[in-house]
User: What shape does this take?
Amino acid sequence: MIKFLDLQKINAQYEQELKAAANRVIDSGWYLMGKELETFEQNYAAFCGTKYALGVANGLDALRLIFKAYIEMGVMQKGDEVIVPANTYIASVLAISDNDLIPVFVEPNIDTYNLDASKIEEAITPKTKAILTVHLYGQNSIDQQMLAICKKHNLKLVEDGAQSHGAIWNGKVSGAIGDAAGHSFYPGKNLGALGDAGAVTTNDEQLAKTIEALRNYGSHKKYENIYQGLNSRLDEIQAAFLNVKLKYIQQDIDARRKVANYYLENIKNPAIILPNNGCHAELVEAHVWHLFVIRTSKRDALQKYLSDNGIQTLIHYPIPPHKQEAYQEYNYLSFPIAEKMHDEVMSLPISGVMKVEEIKAIVKALNNY
Ligand SMILES: *Cc1c(COP(=O)(O)O)cnc(C)c1O
Assistant: This one.
């Protein structure tokens, strides 16, 4: 059986260092808001090229806290609108609605699976205050057109960087391109903790200071609360693990790119549409291949065929947010491109620990289908 993602094997690569990191935290007697977090925040800010990185409890909270902080800062208020791609993971939308902001869905581009900048302006109203763009599957989603729209309409550009650690566009790293970014270190992400963890990156000092308080009950100083905050902190033990794994992230990205290139060059089946429609030239830096997502009109049959051949695949994602029961108020909306994607996409195994024979077996099975 070729697993979709072998987390045990991924973390076994760093077993000694992870165990040493855990021991260090256990022995320190200090488990929250300490040296490990401080070190990780410095390391991660340096990795992204931002002034600030703030550790929080998870990726959803990172995004929630950005909007909560903008509301506290008076940049936006409840009832304002945030543009978001219609084909994202639900967490992007939850971060908006949880703050009593209104998600306004915009279709993705069918080739990149990312927000289609040419469709943003028709969705802008006087209440629009931000774009939450998602670097879906690990590919940068920002282009010059999107930046120009933000400038023209005075919108904040927030990046959902949960899947895109280390992707580069225009000389900038994911998380440093917009005004603020939320990152997830969920175990299955490219930079994964051994539990939940997340971070906000930004160059905006006021935003950083606000989030620093909001993640800790709204307090800068113990027992003095200036905001009605959350408890959303990144544990010392997770920060210690992340300090280990961050050292190897570039190695992991390089290995993922090798797998992706092999798939792109060798999968040859007219029934299968490859990422970016098979066009790869521009994407060497901009894609970190968190997921390798193909499309096919007979998706469920192909998934069963692969499963029968011992290959595990997943669907990211089977139901778009506007069709979820949780968002009944949006169920009537129709986004044909997003809905087509949700019906046709399938994610192949990809990681830095796959064996060459496994990759070849997957390509062979797909080409024989
Ligand atoms: C994983 C993910 C999140 C949420 O991150 P968590 O750490 O799981 O809360 C948000 N957005 C996208 C696109 C994700 O893939």
